[in-house]
Specification:
single chain, mainly alpha, 8 helices
């Protein structure tokens, strides 16, 4: 990649990152996601790149990938509910703002609507942007060295966390931590997106399901009660 090409790619990365962060902090994440999609699609089209460039390549085994995604999603979500979220709330002295999905509580119709959104839009599109585009392009610029991967992982996770600013300071921190985990999954999957997509989808499915039945608060109380 030439110096001029590298500069152009870096500028596009920074523009996409800034758009996601600003709209997330202003509690207008949908605008940022839509804008990022448009820029990324235009970038791929202008360069003649296929979607496989940003990780949308067929996995070796769909069944194994989905099953692994379910297992990882369950572990990560339970870890988040019982450990990551309570600790980040202690650090930031603020509660997570889950008001965007409050309507799912006791309402299975709203829950099903969220499931459609999670599996059709959120998991695929967010992974395509934060891991697929940002991490792949950073990898193409910085390489695959240990420190390059650390910078790549931290950068994409910071952008991921800040763009969830509508969840409050605790949400930014906990989402950033989950972003690190998803980024590691992406790297260990040889920059193939599908395991990260299914893991993300099951994280959100289990998380929203717990909120719908009040299970998140129950698990937090049970976990910390035994340690008090």
């Amino acid at each position: 990649m030439s110096i001029s090409s590298s500069i152009i790619h870096m500028v596009i990365i920074l523009v996409v990152s800034a758009l996601l962060i600003i709209t997330g902090l202003k509690k207008q994440p949908g605008i940022g996601i839509l804008g990022a999609i448009m820029i990324i699609v235009l970038f791929l089209w202008a360069c003649g790149y296929p979607l496989s460039r940003i990780g949308f390549a067929r996995p070796q085994n769909w069944f194994f990938t989905i099953l692994m995604g379910l297992g990882l999603g369950l572990i990560i979500q339970l870890l988040s509910v019982m450990l990551i979220e309570p600790l980040t709330e202690k650090i930031t002295h603020s509660k997570h703002d889950h008001s965007i999905i409050d309507a799912v509580k006791g309402n299975w119709k709203v829950f099903l609507q969220w499931m459609l959104m999670v599996w059709i839009l959120v998991a695929v599109i967010e992974e395509g942007i934060y891991r697929g585009y940002l991490m792949t392009e950073m990898k193409n610029l910085l390489g695959l060295g240990f420190f390059a991967l650390i910078i790549n992982l931290l950068y994409s996770s910071v952008v991921f966390g800040l763009s969830h600013g509508y969840q409050g300071s605790s949400g930014i921190l906990s989402t950033g931590i989950v972003g690190v985990i998803l980024g590691m999954i992406f790297i260990l999957s040889d920059f193939n997106l599908w395991l990260a997509i299914f893991t993300h989808g099951f994280i959100d499915t289990i998380g929203i399901g717990l909120i719908a039945i009040g299970g998140d608060e129950y698990l937090k109380k049970q976990f910390w009660l035994k340690r008090s």
